[in-house]
Amino acid sequence: MLYLIGLGVYDEKDLTIRGLEALKKCPQIYAEFYTNRFSGSLNSLEDLIGKKIILLKRGDLEERPQENVLKDSSDLDVALLISGDPMVATTHIDLILRAKKLGIPYKIIHSSSVYSAIGEAGLQIYKYGKTASLVYPEKNYFPTSPYDILRENQKNGLHTLFLLDIKAEENRFMSVNEAINLLFEIEKQKKEGLFSPETLCIGVARLGGDTLIKAGKAAEIAKKDFGNPPHSLIVPGKLHFMEKEALELFN
Ligand SMILES: C[S@@+](CC[C@H](N)C(=O)[O-])C[C@H]1O[C@@H](n2cnc3c(N)ncnc32)[C@H](O)[C@@H]1O
Questions:
Q1: How far, in Å, from the CA of 209 to the mean position of ligand 1?
Q2: 230 close to ligand 1 (CB < 6 Angstrom)
Q3: 160 lines ligand 1 (CB under 6 A)
Q4: In this structure, are strands 200-205 and 231-235 parallel, antiparallel, or unpaired?
């Protein structure tokens, strides 16, 4: 059996009892922290489980899963630990499809996620539109699609959640400040007046841990220090009066 187990939104204390019970049965345990930053400690997690954990890189899992998680899971209970919920904003459905083709049974153990914890920022969850991912630009690669998503959501009065780039192997995690500056750069190219220094933004850091949420004009939020990652950014759409009141908590 292959278990995909969510570690939850912040650290090892977010692991569910169901997840812990499954881990006790698994002689082989892997983890990947490239789809989300794990804010806990690998040692504390190993102490909690009482077993060693093998850390996998993106290439191990996306290109060579038959050499690790899929290798023994037809005979043994094998676990893959994933920060947050295993099926939220990850590519792990691909792994499940591969397991299925190989006749390997699998079980998903859900946990808390940025998608639920973001409710703490005070906006109604069903009024979010499509999520956008902001990535670090590279030479000849500067995707502006997040701006298109923002335009579409704004047109429909919906809130936009920006998930921010993670380069785990370089220990680089995009901050709220970098995200806002990136949107300013894209605005300079597109010139549609969609994102300006006056645009209302909500910067969110470390949900589930020592959370920091700040709401204000983009120019002001861009100057605030949000501390350690992970960070997310929200650009609200049309606000209900109760959402407006909730945002006052974060001025
Ligand atoms: C690709 S998503 C993976 C989401 C994860 N599977 C989950 O269910 O939470 C990773 C991004 O979500 C956001 N994120 C995840 N955890 C967060 C937290 N505790 N606080 C703020 N943002 C978070 C960050 O923008 C991070 O770069």
A1: 12
A2: yes
A3: no
A4: antiparallel
- Locate 247 and state its tokens: 């945002």
User: Do residues 2 and 28 make contact, with C-beta atoms less than 8 angstroms apart?
Assistant: no
Where the chain has pLDDT below 50, the residues are: none
Full-model pTM: 0.96
Ligand 1 site-directed mutation target among 108, 164, 228, 232, most atoms within 8 Å of CB = 232
What's the Rg (C-alpha) of the chain? 19
The tokens of 81 are what? 């630990």
Nearest CA to ligand 1 atom 16: 114
DSSP label at 230? P
- Can you say how many angstroms the Cα of residue 108 is from the centroid of all Cα atoms in its chain? 18
Q: Judge whether 95 and 203 are in contact, CB under 8 Å.
A: no
Boundaries of every domain in the chain: 2-112, 115-250
Q: Which two tokens stand for residue 74?
A: 């037809």
- The candidate with the shortest Cα–Cα distance to 200, out of 163, 151, 251, 240, is 251
Classify domain 115-250 by CATH number: 3.30.950.10
Q: Cα-Cα-Cα-Cα dihedral of 166, 169, 226, 6, to 10°?
A: 60
Return the bridge partners of 233, or none: 162, 203
| Residues whose CB falls within 8 Å of the CB of residue 156, separated by 6 or more in sequence, listed in order | 129, 237
What is the CA angle 58-231-251, rounded to 5? Answer: 170
pLDDT tens by residue, 96-114: 999 999 999 999 999 999 9
> What CATH number is given for 2-112 in this structure?
3.40.1010.10
